[in-house]
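Protein modeling request. Please complete all fields; requests missing the sequence field cannot be processed.
Requester role: graduate student
Desired output: 3D structure, token encoding
Chains: 1
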Amino acid sequence: MTGKISHIVITAVAVCLLAFSSVGHAQAIDEEPSALAMTGDALFVRPALFATTIVGSVVYLVSLPFSALGGNAAEAGEVLVVGPAKATFVRCLGCTRTGRKQQPIEQSGN
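Delivered output (110 residues):
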């Protein structure tokens, strides 16, 4: 009886997590970071992410023979190297989401 209830609860939680995840990705967020967020990002977060990129690159190189044999070398590279590198270098200062900040489109008057 307890096992059945725990399976139902786990399934319900998994479904809720999947639903909340898709809602978060569906909404475009335009971030306006504060000066404090930008300063903290420049002084603490970027150096830590850069170190993570270097360590991830080393781990990827060491594990490359094993991940190549397992058929997931590309996935390992994405997670260990590309993800941290994007978070380090392709993110506006102080923003929490990876990617370039959207620039408004200017229309020229004819």
